[in-house]
TrEMBL record:
<feature type="binding site">
    <location>
        <begin position="65"/>
        <end position="72"/>
    </location>
    <ligand>
        <name>ATP</name>
    </ligand>
</feature>
<dbReference type="GO" id="GO:0004329">
    <property type="term" value="F:formate-tetrahydrofolate ligase activity"/>
</dbReference>
<comment type="pathway">
    <text>One-carbon metabolism; tetrahydrofolate interconversion.</text>
</comment>
<keyword id="KW-0554">One-carbon metabolism</keyword>
<protein>
    <recommendedName>
        <fullName>Formate--tetrahydrofolate ligase</fullName>
        <ecNumber>6.3.4.3</ecNumber>
    </recommendedName>
</protein>
<keyword id="KW-0547">Nucleotide-binding</keyword>
<dbReference type="GO" id="GO:0035999">
    <property type="term" value="P:tetrahydrofolate interconversion"/>
</dbReference>
<keyword id="KW-0436">Ligase</keyword>
<dbReference type="GO" id="GO:0005524">
    <property type="term" value="F:ATP binding"/>
</dbReference>
<keyword id="KW-0067">ATP-binding</keyword>
<dbReference type="InterPro" id="IPR020628">
    <property type="entry name" value="Formate_THF_ligase_CS"/>
</dbReference>
<dbReference type="InterPro" id="IPR000559">
    <property type="entry name" value="Formate_THF_ligase"/>
</dbReference>
<comment type="similarity">
    <text>Belongs to the formate--tetrahydrofolate ligase family.</text>
</comment>
<dbReference type="Pfam" id="PF01268">
    <property type="entry name" value="FTHFS"/>
</dbReference>
<dbReference type="InterPro" id="IPR027417">
    <property type="entry name" value="P-loop_NTPase"/>
</dbReference>
Length: 556
């Protein structure tokens, strides 16, 4: 089979206005970026507000391997299959970050015959949204240091600067740095840090804002520092919110593209699920729900990360109700959770597979905690055996959960038809009220502990002295009623990436907690998670090239 990029480069694309026509989007509402990408004007929201609302389908997964389990591929295939069955469907996805593209995980445009296109553009610079977020973020950082340099009228405590710098690349050397060296004219010397743009509070604000007014209001509420008396200093006090909003004025508009089968897709904003909340923008989902019968949206990593945050943060913010959820599983990942060698998962045995099945069960249970019906999508690879496939399906049926084989990668919509029919059936039957895991009135510790016990399966939560200090600070500043967005490893239900399967009698260690007052959530950090990833020993960047004719090779 050809590589992802070879398949993408051979695909015949429709002009983007033809994709807009399928959704009845007036051409004047499309702001084209070339022939195959377009921004959609926010004015469309007002035009379609009286439209009936479609069904919302959330795609999540079991605890993934380093290369992922094909959530995006399945989500795209599912949306294409629903369209093929005569209903309208839009897949809504996050924008890829350059960090994983050049790191180990690769791009985020799907794979094989289930991709969003143009794949090279989407995986690289796309419409410039992530650049805009990086620029707005670093403008705030520059204005903060500039204020201190020119007299510091706000009496900002240089030891209590809380807002980092950002860059869209994996670069561990920037995790802890010193700025302001070289003399007085370069500003005060102090410790600083970079985070990846996907973890930026500005990215979160962009994705969670429902309008330009809300965007500006949230930007002004970013907590940047404390003053000498311990009082909060917000971005609005630096007079920078308007300029930040100008940098984001186009970035807030959803990006319309197409799947390989010419069905519509929104790809907009890019927060990671392990170190942020992990879903596409609220605006793109709201728009999609008014334009189609079904909206397929993906939440990053396993149910313990993207899905939990989607229910407790995104649904709370936007008022969304999920009609059904899909949990993507692969035999290779289940073998890993059953003790197979990570470097050679294909050599794992049927016993490894059986021992790994409790991880799948835990993720099914996690979705059901929110009172949402679930379907398992078994993402089948060519070397999976029939006995392995039947083992997984039998296990699911024993646990009263439908399990459908999916071959979106090799067959596109044709390989996802059965899943589409089951998801539509379950979604139409779904009448139950979605519930949240915790109340906003719960204490910060109670929120963290409910997620840790109920979703991760932890026995207890411990807090470092720094975390305890951070929690007290949040309470003192009046931020204790915010939801929590726990940053932790995606490789385990625990905070230890080496604990596979369903760990028992483990503790979650909260090392610190950051306040994202503009995004309107708190970020407790669990274990050794870092908001600036590093590259792998042999990163994907070594496989990517440009030939003499300007054709990209090796991107996936």
């Amino acid at each position: 089979m050809e590589s992802d990029i070879e398949i993408a480069q051979k695909a015949k694309l429709l002009p983007i206005n033809k994709i807009g026509e399928k959704l009845k989007i007036p051409e004047e509402m499309l702001l084209p970026f070339g022939n195959y990408k377009a921004k959609v004007s926010l004015r469309l929201l007002n035009q379609i507000k009286e439209n009936s609302e479609g069904k919302l389908i959330l795609v999540s997964a079991i605890t993934p391997t380093a290369t992922g389990e094909g959530k995006t591929t399945v989500a795209i295939g599912l949306s294409m299959a629903i369209n093929r069955l005569g209903k309208s469907s839009i897949v809504t996805l996050r924008e890829p970050s350059l960090g994983p593209v050049f790191g180990i995980k690769g791009g985020a445009a799907g794979g094989g015959y289930s991709q969003v296109l143009p794949m090279e553009d989407i995986n690289l610079h796309f419409t410039g949204d992530i650049h805009s977020v990086t620029s707005a973020h670093n403008l705030l950082s520059a204005m903060l240091d500039n204020h201190i340099h020119f007299g510091n009228q706000l009496q900002i405590d240089e030891r209590e600067i809380l807002f980092p710098r950002a860059m869209d690349m994996n670069d561990r050397s920037l995790r802890d740095i010193v700025v302001g060296l070289g003399g007085k004219e370069n500003g005060p010397a102090r410790e600083d840090r970079f985070i990846i743009t996907a973890a930026s509070e500005v990215m979160a604000i962009l994705g969670l804002s429902g309008s330009i007014k809300e965007l500006k209001d949230r930007l002004c509420k970013i907590l940047v520092a404390l003053d000498m008396a311990g009082n909060p200093v917000f971005a609005g006090q630096l007079g920078v919110c308007g300029a930040m909003a100008v940098l984001l004025k186009d970035a807030i508009k959803p990006n319309l593209v197409q799947t390989i089968e010419h069905t519509p897709a929104f790809v907009h904003t890019g927060p990671f699920a392990n170190i942020a909340y992990g879903t596409c923008s609220i605006i793109s989902m709201k728009m999609a729900l008014k334009l189609s019968d079904y909206v397929i949206t993906e939440a990053g990593f396993g149910t313990d990360l993207g899905a939990e945050k989607f229910f407790n943060i995104v649904c709370r913010t936007a008022g969304f109700r999920v009609n059904s959820a899909v949990v993507v599983a692969t035999i290779k990942a289940l073998k890993l959770h059953g003790g197979a060698d990570e470097k050679n998962l294909r050599a794992g045995t049927i016993e490894n597979l059986k021992k790994g099945l409790p991880n799948l069960k835990k993720h099914i249970e996690n979705i059901k905690k929110f009172n949402v019906p679930v379907v398992v999508a078994l993402n089948v690879f060519n070397d999976d055996t029939q006995i392995e496939i039947e083992t997984v399906k039998s296990f699911c049926y024993e646990n009263n959960t439908p399990c459908i084989e999916v071959r979106a990668f090799t067959k596109g919509s044709e390989g996802t038809m059965e899943l589409a029919m089951e998801v539509m059936r379950v979604s139409e039957k779904s009448q139950s009220e979605q519930i949240y895991l915790y109340n906003l009135e719960d204490s910060i510790e109670d929120k963290i502990e409910k997620i840790s016990r109920e979703i991760y399966g932890a026995e207890r939560v411990v807090y470092t002295p720094k975390a305890e200090k951070d929690i007290k600070r949040a309470e003192k500043l009046g931020f204790d009623r915010l939801p929590v967005c726990i940053a932790k490893t995606n490789r385990s239900l625990s905070d230890d990436p080496k604990l596979y399967g369903v760990p028992e009698k483990f503790k979650i260690t909260i090392t610190e907690m950051r306040i994202s007052s503009g995004a309107n959530f708190l970020v407790p950090l669990a274990g050794e998670i870092n908001l600036m990833p590093g590259l792998a020993k042999i990163p994907n960047a070594t496989k990517i090239d440009l030939d003499d004719q300007g054709v990209i090779k090796g991107l996936s």
